[in-house]
């Protein structure tokens, strides 16, 4: 089973700068972070509800995030184990 959730990656960004939003995909006990191509300030992100808040385009952003979650969930069959037991394609960047 695969779980997906959005994650604002503020690890390497200074206070007051925009941070990238990534989709965290967990499967078989492994996690991959897929960049969504969206950046915004941390004060526009609610980590508890995992939604954009107080952003001028919050409705459009939340719809985009939800659509990407659904797309990744549907492509769950792409994430498969290879002959050595390692995950094939897991963690690879996709468009």
Characterise this structure:
- This protein is an alpha+beta fold.
- It has one domain (3-88).
- The chain has 1 helix and 7 strands; from the N terminus they run βββββαββ.
- The strands form 3 sheets. A 3-stranded antiparallel beta sheet has the order 1-2-3, with helices on one face. A two-stranded antiparallel ribbon has the order 4-5. A two-stranded antiparallel sheet has the order 6-7.
- The chain is globular, with a radius of gyration of 14 Å.
- It starts with a strand and ends in a 7-residue tail after the last strand.
Sheet-strand content, in percent, reads: 35-45%
Strand order of the largest sheet: 1-2-3
Order of helices and strands: EEEEEHEE
Oligomer: single chain
Question: What is the first-to-last residue Cα distance?
Answer: 22 Å
What's the Cα radius of gyration?
Answer: 14 Å
The number of strands is: 7
The largest pleated sheet is described as: 3 strands, antiparallel
Secondary-structure-based class equals alpha+beta
> Helix fraction?
10-25%
The total tally of domains equals 1
Q: What do the pLDDT scores average to?
A: 81
- Helix segment tally: 1
Cα shape: globular
Report low-confidence residues grouped into runs of 5 or more: 91-95
């Amino acid at each position: 089973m695969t779980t997906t959730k959005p994650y604002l990656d503020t690890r390497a960004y200074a206070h007051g700068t925009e941070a990238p939003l990534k989709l965290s995909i967990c499967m078989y006990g492994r996690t991959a972070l897929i960049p969504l191509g969206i950046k915004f300030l941390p004060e526009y992100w609610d980590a508890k509800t995992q939604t954009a808040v107080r952003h001028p385009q919050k409705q459009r952003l939340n719809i985009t995030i939800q659509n990407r979650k659904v797309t990744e969930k549907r492509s769950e069959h792409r994430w498969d184990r290879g002959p050595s037991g390692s995950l094939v394609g897991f963690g690879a960047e996709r468009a």
